Amino acid sequence: MRHPQPSRTGTIRRPTVAGHRSVRSRDTARWYPLVAVAADALGVFVPVSLAYAFASETRPFASATVATFCWLTVRSLGRRYGARTLGESRGFLATVHDWLIMLGLLAGLRAVTGETSAVSSAFLGLTPALLITAVTGAAIHGHLTGQRHQAHALRRVLVVGEPATADAVAAQLAARTDHAYVVIGIVPAGAGELTGGVPELGRLIDPDPEPALAVPDLIPEGPDGSIVLAAARRHDADMVLVVPGSRLTGERLRRLTWAVQDAGLSLAIASGLTEVALRRLSVSATAGLNLLHIAPPLRRGTQPALKCVLDRVAAALILLVLSPPLLALALAVRLDSRGPVLYRQTRIGFRGTPFTLWKFRTMVADADQRRPELEADNEHLAGPLFKIRRDPRVTRLGRVLRRTSLDELPQLINVLRGDMALVGPRPPLPDEVARYGAVELRRLGVRPGLTGLWQVSGRSDLSWDEGLALDLFYTDNWSVTGDLDVLARTLRAVVDGRGAY
Prior knowledge:
By secondary structure, the protein is an alpha/beta fold. The protein has 17 helices and ten strands. It has three domains: 25-149, no CATH class; 155-272, Rossmann fold (3-Layer(aba) Sandwich); 302-496, no CATH class. Helix 3 (60-77) crosses helix 4 and helix 4 runs antiparallel to helix 5 (119-149). The relative contact order is 0.09.
């Protein structure tokens, strides 16, 4: 399963109106498990049968059946076919994880049963399963994402909480389409007006502080539960999302939970935490309290050391393999326009350390001197970035290099030297860092990257706030497996060329 990373859609907003009639996720996703199981089964049975048959191995169909059973068992135990989870991510890393487990399981069975078939035949037959399952998962994810962009495959959510916090949660859910929830209305708790445009479907009245004057609670679900359930039933809600606060906590929250769940509705509690990867969260119970623990970001230990080693080894290998194309690109830059082949620029790296960044030159030689006269055309006036969609300083070849990101390849030297990583935040300029506040400075807690979440989420099409949010998310939630996922998505972003100028 892919790490939960923020997917910025930019201009797409999800409607939040009470009359919005959406196709339920359980209806649209009904065929997803069938397709996934069929693809997994055929992706093992057919290749293994053919591999064993061509190698003249005995009992090819029996071996294929055992391998198929093992693959489906591993996938089922990993809960890969659940209607609520299938399609929520591309699942490439989960597929690799399951495939390796299957290899280990089959190796164990081979040792126990004394199987004598060639290992090469088994490996050749099992390899297509990795590709077929990964492609199937990506296709299902793409279909589900497309459905949600069209306001289908959604779950109707009723938000309950104090007006300000409920408005904020509804706005955050409406701003993105990479999830299943559409807010149909809010039941505010206590006084205060809703300002986000979401319909008010009832209101929870603060309990009387004087017990002697309190109205006896004769309704089974309690007064809060009856109001929430009436709104949920009237507007056909699938789930109640509660936002706790000073007016909605303790025993009151507990009884509301009973009422909602006894009525057969799903219930979720918004913790107030944002942009924290799921793997960093754990729950424990102490003295009757449910505690949500947050693991610290990876700053030292095995994973940072492994990342450093992998980055440098990979950079060295890529430079060695690409040395002929790099020399050809260098010659093309030299012949296209006057000026040096490589552009050197001071950037700020890990913990504020400056370094010299290398790129193929894509602008005229005096580009830096001409920047002040173009400040009025800067498309990122709201932040410290400087970007122009049709920058007149970019050369003819430079436009091609930028669109394909080939101008970034010399930064592999920076990765090899340890100034940068393969994956990380965008390396900022000194004048950008000079305008940073305490929040922005946090993105310097890891090495900047040759690629990153900003690269696979729109690049220059992102606003300053969106790019900063992605960098901060990466800084706090990165992992080696997450880096592998970003590297895989980078190839698609480079081929697409969206946001590169």
